[in-house]
Amino acid sequence: YKTFDGDLKWDHHDVTYRIMRYTPDMDISLVDDAFARAFKVWSDVTPLTFTRLFDGTADIMISFGKADHGDPYPFDGKNGLLAHAYPPGEGMQGDAHFDDDEYWTLGKGAAVKTHYGNANGAMCHFPFTFEGKSYTTCTTDGRTDNLEWCATTADYSRDKKFGFCPSELLYTFGGNAGGDKCVFPFVFLGKEYDSCTTEGRSDGYRWCATTDNFDTDKKFGFCPSHGNAVTGGNSEGESCHFPFEFLGKQYDSCTSEGRGDGKLWCSTTDSYDNDKKWGFCQDDGYSLFLVAAHEFGHALGLDHSSIREALMYPMYSYVEDFSLHPDDIEGIQYLYGRKTGPDPTPPQPIPTTTDYEIDPTDVPETTEAPTTTTTTTTRPVDPTKDACKITKFDTITVIGAELHFFKDGNYWKMSDRSDEGPKGPFAISEKWPALPAVIDSAFEDLLTRKLYFFSGTRFWVYSGQSVLGPRNIEKLGLPNTVQKVEGALQRGKGKVLLFSGESFWRLDVKAQKIDKGYPRYTDAVFGGIPNDAHDVFQYKGHFYFCRDRFYWRMNSRRQVDRVGYVKYDLLKC
Amino acid sequence: WSLPLKSVFVTFPGDIIKNMTDSELAENYLNKFGYMDTMKRSGFQSMVSTAKALKAMQKQMGLEETGELDKPTIEAMKRPRCGVPDVGN
Predict the structure, then answer these.
(1) Secondary structure of A89-156 in the HEC alphabet?
(2) How far is it, in rounded angstroms, from Cα A4 to Cα A11?
(3) What is the pLDDT of residues A389-407, one digit of tens each?
């Protein structure tokens, strides 16, 4: 990890943030949630707390913008630069900016939250089927009012669950009209507009009046992106028009013709040749959560890391089950220290009531019209506190004949004499105060009963309450290319196999040295197990290799005799 | 015999991203993210500086440090990324 020159950091732990401007790509609630989760990434491993402000100046001011957006570092259109942030300090320092020429999602395609309908604001389910046809975007099929809708389950015909996709015909965001819907046509500077426009603005955002005359009423709002809107180009927010004509040829789908960069685009009118209106077609988009977590790292004082798997690596890559890399943890704890004390008691669920009043004509044909629906949103159980909800543990090992499951500063215990499920969570910092929150691997030396813990390139040895370390794993004879030890297997008394990547080494525990003849390739010795297992341990005479929520069990003859779920078989959830 | 398709590239109105050669892209990238001394240099000195900057960039990105504008380096430069410079920010 790297910090900025002079170790720039906040001089207080109660950091504030304010969201100044939203993207049209995602519902406001999804954006709020993505930012809150991104801050939690850092507050989980430090004493920092993050409080959202709704007015005034916050430490971290967050906004979306395009190209020249008010600082000396303009964005560059779609792809390329995604976002930037400034290190801690006064004024613009600490602020985070996101390029709104990108398509912001949760990383796996359109994240479309529905409005009205009968699905209580659930997310669209893509693809969904409607009258035998499969849809991967919102559609107006089955309706006569041109409102786009989607099913919120895989099969509309079976479940009849639907909602309306974002549209200026339903609501606007920002502006000064309190979210009112657009009124078409509206008059602006004496001219009539039948759709959202970027006229009169230099920032490229689409807006509309929420009364029939902006010139007299001055009421306006920004238009949300449609479920199948294009991004970038010169038709942001409009939909592809199929078929369209380009250089005299008809196109029924997005194409990369005419471009040197291979990006898919479409015309938003029936003829590009005549109208020159175009935009980029939707793709998976970029995860706002992941990019925000990275940028907030900068806003807290971390510079770019050269470790590819670290969050602070400068390039974007999508990961499904995100967890903070030890390098990031080390970096942020270097600046702010480790999290201390228990988490505050979570507040009681706050019932929120939303009325969805709909008109029978608002329902896609072939369904019955629900009237009014009330939703109660409850705060979900914090998955970091419930072992049964964790899909990937930092490490699993046996200590004192009990299975121990480690994750983000906590651990759970499972006795082999009980079917009651996991006990815990217990704080790692209470039992083993010298250890960091994330443990990559651990084992108990059967001869001395000493406990060995590995985190990144460091290890600790606990003997009762006394501790040695941290020491660098190179001291054991592991090469400096090993970034972490991912598993440990006892091989007789005094010998332990240490796994990292696709190789393993044999450690002579007494001599504290790696034996000659190592590393060896894991798949050459342990055939049939995944070569990217992240937890390796021995339990009741079997070897276990875990990847995500699954384990591969191997007997003493090195045959895989079972593949199962960690959750059900080991945790007894 | 099938004739190879001849691609026609057009300039799209409002497109910020312009078609650039690989060396233009690299120069732009190395400057923008702090790998190149932006002071004007000339001739041989400039080549040395570019190779050094490329090596620094390749090291940061975990690529083989060839100091040359090879394919993995160009591909890395085209990938989406954070706008904060890697060096000397």
Answers:
(1) CCCCCCCEEEECCCCEECCCCCCCECECCCCCCCECCCCEEECCEEECCCECCCCCCCCCEEECCCEH
(2) 15
(3) 888 898 999 998 889 999 9
Distance, in Å, from the CA atom of A460 to the CA atom of A471, rounded to the nearest integer, reads 7
Peptide bond into A425 cis (omega under 30): yes
Residues A330, A218: Cα–Cα separation, whole Å: 52
Compute the average pLDDT of residues A426-437. Answer: 86
% of residues, chain A, pLDDT over 70: 91
Query: CB distance B84–A78 less than 8 Å?
Result: no
Residue type, A164: F
Q: Do A257 and B7 touch (CB under 8 A)?
A: yes
**pLDDT tops 80 at residue A351:** no
Cα A443 → chain centroid: 31
Q: How many whole angstroms separate alpha carbon A328 and alpha carbon A455?
A: 12
Q: Is residue A258 very low, low, confident or very high in pLDDT (cuts 50, 70, 90)?
A: confident
Residue A349's pLDDT is: 39
Contact A82 B89 (CB under 8 A): no
> Which ipTM value was assigned to this complex?
0.83
Q: Is A295 a catalytic residue?
A: yes
Eight-state DSSP code of residue A242: S
The minimum CA-CA distance between B87 and chain A, rounded to whole Å, is 9
Determine contact: B10 vs chain A, CB below 8 A.
Answer: yes
Joined tokens for residue A484 = 């972490």
Is the model's pLDDT at A71 over the cut of 80?
yes
Residue holding tokens 């903070």?
Answer: A324
Q: pLDDT, tens digit, for every residue of A49-65?
A: 999 998 899 999 999 99
Report how far residue A558's alpha carbon sits from residue A528's, in angstroms, rounded to the nearest whole number. Answer: 9
d(CA A526, CA B87): 43
